[in-house]
Amino acid sequence: MAIRLRAFLLAALACLALASPAPAQQSGHYSLLTVTRQFTNSGATTLGATTFSGITGATQCLHVNSSGSISGTGSDCGSGGGGSGTLNSVTDGTNTVSSPTQLSVTNGAVVSNPSGSVAQIALPLAPPPLEQHTASSSATLDFTTGITGACTDYNLHLQNILPATNGVSLHIQIGTGASLPSSGWDTGTNYNWAMVYVYTATPYGPGPIYGHSGSGAGASDFMLADTQDNTTAEGGVSGDFQIINPNSSTQDKMVLWHVGEQNSTINFNLAGNGLYYATTAVTGLRLVFSSGNIASGRATLTCTAQ
Description:
By secondary structure, the protein is mainly β. The chain is 3% helix and 45% strand.
């Protein structure tokens, strides 16, 4: 006779004696694990004493949502009535372990079955990407599907964004509406930003440090980095751009960034913030150089707050 997953877990595993403080949390939204079938009270494989090492802290109950994802509730809901059942399979969406006798939740490999009976469930070591693009002589990198109402804040991570043209600046444009990427990119005067940066005159070892600042009031985009070389060995621009509450229809949008670049023998450390002066909900981000294509590099959009 089939027993629903939630009923089984609340009865058999309602109170877990959990040890040690919780490890550092990774931001993002993702399922801890997913059981693809129901537990049953018959079968050769019985779920015995089970430890979810990825859920730590005080004694607490387990919560199973409508997708079968398991998480800790953070509070105790009383003693359970015991029970047993059969775990048919566990999957991470790609790999599946059938009829495991034990579940182990760790930071490590994806779901696997090294001993023939233990299903190892890995927690992501980084927030899962909502949208990711790799440049190859690309005019722009457009992020048009990842910004939804699921998160309140988003981060765009830049990895070695290299221009095809020498001495150009890297910019981000805001997109709104449902017509992206064909239309909806704002190149008007709704941007206001300020940036400070320090740089060294020598690439290695101690050297002079200089400071500078820049700003754009009524600008047509946000400028993240200036005067970037197109030399592959120098690594392009790397860093992070964050946008706060882009889904709001009542507030202007705050943005912050911190990036690094090398220009010939000079290393730059740049940090800035700004406002997108519009209460319209933001639905996209466009990465573009002031002139020429994006020769190479990768950019990844993730959720930083929900």
